[in-house]
Amino acid sequence: MNRKSDNSQRAALSGSLNRLLRPGLLSDADEKLLRSLFETLYPQSISRLRERYPELTKSDELFCMLIILRQSTSSIAIALGILRASVNTARYRLRRKFNLPPDVDLDTFLISGEF
User: What b/e readout covers 90-103, taking b as 16+ CB neighbours within 10 angstroms?
Assistant: First the structure.
């Protein structure tokens, strides 16, 4: 595939993701679609996370995907139908599972893809 069509495909997929992540609770069908679109945009990201951190749950994976997609704490809370405090707790637990030192930002760690 050439670079121009690859960029237009990524733009279309990003648009689909943005529609999925509108304010409101993600349904099971929405989550399946989100996972599929995410895998297309970020191939092997989740499989690498699973390989390196086998203790991650499906919920942990979903949080990681939303962080990689640069969703704010508020956006994640709205999409998942949980409190902001619960998102912060999930972030704390992910930091522990990843064994991140205090000076390493969780978002930067995940977005960099260097896990």
Answer: bbeebbeebeeeee
CA nearest neighbour of 62 among 84, 91, 83: 91
Distance of CA 70 to the CA centre of its chain: 8
pLDDT digits (tens, 9 = 90+) for 11-63: 667 667 667 766 667 788 888 989 999 999 999 999 999 999 999 999 999 99
CB 17 within 8 A of CB 72: no
pTM, full prediction:
0.81
